[in-house]
Fold this sequence. Notes:
The structure holds two protein chains of two kinds. Chain A has helices at 12-20, 22-43, 50-57, 71-94, 102-109, 118-125, 132-141, 150-166, 174-206, 209-237, 241-260, 274-285, 288-301, 307-316, 321-345, 351-367, 378-406, 412-441, 445-458, 468-471. Chain A is 69% helix and 0% strand. Residues 265-272 and 487-496 of chain A have low confidence and may be disordered. Chain A is globular and about 75 Å long. In chain A, α4 (71-94) packs antiparallel against α9 and α7 packs across α9 (174-206). By secondary structure, chain B is mainly alpha-helical. Chain B has helices at 3-11, 15-37, 42-59, 69-88, 97-103, 113-122, 127-138, 143-150, 154-172, 175-182, 189-198. The radius of gyration of chain B is 19 Å and the shape is globular. The interface between A and B is large, with 43 and 56 residues.
Amino acid sequence: MNCRRLNKIEGIGAWWHRLWCKECRSAHKADAVIARGVRQWQETPAPTDSLSRTLAALGIVPTQLGQPLSPAEIRSRLGRALLLVGLGIFIMALTQPETIGRSVLDPLLTRQGLFGGAAGLWALIALFSYLKPLAAMLTDYVPLFGSRRRSYLVISAGLASLLWLTTLLTPNSPAMLTIACIGVGAMLALGSTVIGGFLVEQGQKYGATGRLGALHQMLLHLAWMIAAPLSGFLAGMAFHLTPIFSAALLLILAFCSYGLMREETSAPPVKHTVKDSWNQVRSLARSRTMWSLAAILILVFSVSNFSTVLSEQQAELGFTPALQSLLEFTGHAASLAGIMIYLLICRRYPLQSLLIPGIIGNALGTLLYLGYHPHLTPAEAVAIEIFNGMASALIAVTLFDLAVRAVPVGSECLGYAILMSVINISSRFSDLLSVHLMSHYHFSFAMIVGLSAGSCLLAALAVPFLPREVVSRREGEPALPPRRSLDAGRAQSAPV
Amino acid sequence: MEEREWVQQIVRGDAAARERFVVQFHESVYRWLRYLTGSGQEETAQELTQETFLAALRGLDRFEGRSALVTWLHRIAYHQFTHWLRDRRQQEHWHTGLEAAEELADPTGKNAWESLCLRQALKQLSEAHRDTFILHYVQQLSVQEVAEVLEVPPGTIQSRLYHARQKLRELLQEPAVFQAEHQEIGAAPAEIACRMERK
């Protein structure tokens, strides 16, 4: 092994060099065998009675801590986690003031033209959804009544329920109504951050990041699908039904969280100082994994959402409002189908096998919009929407799975909140960007579509930089500690 | 929780902290001793693991926190092993070809052969290089921690790791050869493993 570049370069440069250097190719193959051999060695467990014998020899009476969980116990705990995450995601998405309350609150809030009208008001009410990282730092590093999750979830759901009920007392005061809605938004932002952190924790613990991520996406789509008709139905009956319905759902969530969520309340309190929290943030900021992941998320989501431009294009092509609604509904339904497909394949294939095909599939689905022409039939439009819906949902849930796996232990809420903020801000920015490009730079619809597909394909370049211990596992396989790099020149450094 | 706080809890007699201490490090210590003691010595590895934790719990009040707990435990485990070796007058490891095949949970499993190849290749290294490789890559200790366990300078550890890696790369640069051998493992694992040993 005499190549001078051996061990000196990595990443894309090393991959390019190996195309020409037989010696480095052989070394790379050998490294892969060694790395897999080390992992298999680490996976070989001690005899099942070894730990209990050691504890007995030391005179330690084993508690639940010392006993490995039985498969039945694991299924039970995972089932509880799935139920709680499902309830939390669905209820918190549905009971947002701008989701279920828009029909009934819009006329009341905008009566006096406060904050520049409806757009300004709703942006203000949704403000706290962009401040989730701050809420996450609170829940990750400041335990409340001995727990990091349950207390925050119960309190946030309970307070959100109470604040919804206060809107019954203030229908004639837009200012007080706005304050109540902002309060609801703040509590739901806190609660959804906690649910996200809980999802990451349980997903990493039981190797169920794919299932929990798919559940998260599925229930978000369901909530969006039923929110508009439900909101219209409740508003049509009577004003007070919307707040009472929302408050009741949130109260159910509070009780279920109290009953279902298990935490080690006897755990010693986390030492929280501003310095410790800041150190955690700094280590997150220095994490190569988080940066690679953020780059992928930005490239995939920052130009992918051109819904406003698409609606305008559909109107130009003569699509009726009924057809547009059908297409939107079809898109959501196809997304649900895509998520179901992911649930089937995530246990068969490691994540790294799903990322690149998912990115390419999403790009192809986007390029189908180039088929929008004046003679497009409704059936063709529905077919485009079905394929695009499935492809975009597949890549979204794959990236969500990746994000959940990549979040460091101890910073579940903060890592999740940061990555979700990247996705949300990128999506919002994407829509504004496409409108801006069309109106100010005279981009055509085809150019917007091409830009979106091209940006998505670029994300594939960042995939090789993701750590193997995150992407090489299938759904259900336990997480391994990060592997030491086989580069002796950096043998002192932290794991890959 | 910081390790010093944890140690103080254990020294004060906190039963939950003691149990957590054993549960957290048991697998790692057992794997290290299982490797050191070699083939057919599962009971010995188990006994040495118990001795290690016994010695650790007795000496925890003297733990000064200059190294990590995991490093300290590995050092205790290594000393327990060397005492056992001296007492039993055994001068070499038993890394026979049978060991690798026996230890694998499923020698016919398609994902197990890299571990077999690695163990066979590791036998070609000297004991010092082998121990260093195992501690760093399998036991996940840093270079500094490995140096503390083996009581040699960190520079020596880095040099050993470099040479171990180079040697393993030379041995495993044709994994197809190992793969061809492995395809017969389902029929006679011990025979194939020994044949590889004779090579």
